[in-house]
């Protein structure tokens, strides 16, 4: 399903998956999702395809890997800090 999601609202997207889940299954199921960044966008499937993990054991591990794979320039913004502080990881 094709959808566009703001970065701050990405955590609920993979919550619908059954865990553990393979990287390939994530790409197959969420590959058409576009993550909207402050200064652009990134395809969720392309992002996860770059992951070092073959399997994600939990929702948290997938969301954290997603955050780690984002372009470096996004990490200095307060959005990432807020994303983690607001408890979006852990659902």
Commentary on this structure:
It is a single chain. With 91 residues, the protein is an alpha+beta fold. A hairpin with a 2-residue loop joins strand 3 (33-37) and strand 4. 36% of the residues lie in helices and 19% in strands. It is built from four helices and five strands. Residues 75-82 have low confidence and may be disordered. It has one domain (3-85). A three-stranded mixed sheet has the order 1-3-4. Strands 2-5 form a two-stranded antiparallel sheet. It starts with a strand and ends in a 6-residue tail after the last helix. It holds the Pfam family DUF5789.
What general form does the structure show?
globular
Radius of gyration: 12 Å
The stretches of 5 or more residues where confidence is low (pLDDT under 50) are: 75-82
Q: Please tell me the total number of domains.
A: 1
Order of helices and strands: EEHEEHEHH
Distance N to C terminus? 22 Å
* Helix/strand/pairing category: alpha+beta
Number of helices: 4
Chain-averaged pLDDT: 82
Order of strands in the sheet with the most strands?
A: 1-3-4
Helical residue percent band = 25-40%
Q: Proportion of β residues?
A: 15-25%
Taking the sheet with the most strands, its summary is: 3 strands, mixed
């Amino acid at each position: 399903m094709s959808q566009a999601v703001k970065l701050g609202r990405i955590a609920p997207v993979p919550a619908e998956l059954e865990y553990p889940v393979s990287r390939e299954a994530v790409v197959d199921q969420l590959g058409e999702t576009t993550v909207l960044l402050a200064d652009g966008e990134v395809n969720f499937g392309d992002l996860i395809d770059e992951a070092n993990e073959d399997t994600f054991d939990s929702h948290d591990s997938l969301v954290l890997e997603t955050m780690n794979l984002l372009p470096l320039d996004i990490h200095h913004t307060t959005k990432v800090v807020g994303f983690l502080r607001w408890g979006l990881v852990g659902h």
